[in-house]
Amino acid sequence: MMVAAYGRHHEALRTLIELGADDTALDDQRYDVITIASVIDDVVTLRILFDAGGDASIITSRYDGTALIAAAHLGHVDIVRELIAAGAPLDHVNNLGWTALIEAIVLGDGGPAHTTIVQDLIAAGADLNLSDRRGITPLGLARAAGYLNIVGLLEEAGARE
To answer: Which of 14, 63, 105, 134 is the S-S candidate for 94 at Cβ 3.0 to 4.6 Å?
Structure first.
């Protein structure tokens, strides 16, 4: 399944699912197929996996993160939306002390994709005041990075520093 996901071999993936392949297996970097599809920005693979009952809440990677955290930091808007719709945990904190919202700010570029992801996470009900390990909230992080559009979104939604 992982090879099929990396290669965007959608029919092979469907066949493997029909044959009962384990969609929760992890590779040597602790990625599952949902995280792989999220990282490579493959909405079709993600939909195939969710249609087959895939779990958007699996903890993956050496960072003990989720596919949502990975997609948020990479700026994959459509993937983030699919993961939110599939019930991905919005406020999971990885072993760096970061949520998807924090990663979209800290590892994002403040541009349109990351701003849209922040907006989508806000709309989905992400906790706007979960701070990083240093005690800095998403609003403080966005302000420090100079991401004025994100600062505005967070302030309008009631975020605190």
So the answer is: 63
